[in-house]
Design a protein that fits this description.
The protein is built from one helix and nine strands, in the order αβββββββββ. With 145 residues, it is mainly beta. It has a domain of 97 residues: Immunoglobulin-like. The protein has a four-stranded antiparallel β-sheet with strand order 1-2-7-6, with no helix packed on it. The protein has a three-stranded antiparallel β-sheet with strand order 3-4-5, with no helix packed on it. Strands 8-9 form a two-stranded antiparallel sheet. It starts with 8 loop residues before the first helix and ends in a 7-residue tail after the last strand.
């Protein structure tokens, strides 16, 4: 029978313990943002977060998403692994002037927070009529003050 000997086994175990003690949970969360038609959608991964622990605020065109994920365990529990992040997560998203933050909608399903913002009417694409006069194309631009 062969016996496997790893001279660094104890060192690796000690390094893992220090890593778990000093590891700070990430304060950011993964997100996707995309535009479809006249809406911008932001999907934020918040697995294991209670919906009541999610806070959305909009101030001066900045959307702030805060969430808190707690891990409840007893002091006398013997923890074998603690790799899942927990604590407070914050993500700030700068909203452009073209988004209507007053009509923001949010939903939370299967660990994903979905925030939907309509594109403001002034920023939506529109057709511009081009007139013609005497065989030449005539394009008029006007501004009202």
């Amino acid at each position: 029978m062969l016996v496997r000997f790893d001279q660094f086994r104890d060192y690796n175990r000690l390094a893992d313990q220090f890593d778990q003690i000093w590891r700070r949970p990430s304060s950011t969360v993964a997100m996707d943002a995309y535009r479809h038609g006249n809406e911008v959608t932001i999907d934020v991964d918040l697995p294991g977060v209670d919906p009541d622990a999610i806070d959305l605020t909009v101030e001066h065109d900045v959307l702030t998403i805060s969430a808190n994920r707690e891990w409840d365990h007893n002091e006398d529990d013997e923890v074998f692994a603690a790799e899942r992040p927990h604590g407070t997560y914050t993500r700030r998203v700068l909203l452009g002037d073209s988004l209507d933050s007053s009509n923001l909608q949010a939903s939370y399903d299967h660990g994903v927070l979905t925030v939907t913002l309509p594109v403001s009417e002034q920023a939506q694409p529109r057709k511009i009529a081009i007139g013609s006069g005497n065989g030449r194309a005539l394009i008029e631009a006007s501004t009202s003050n």
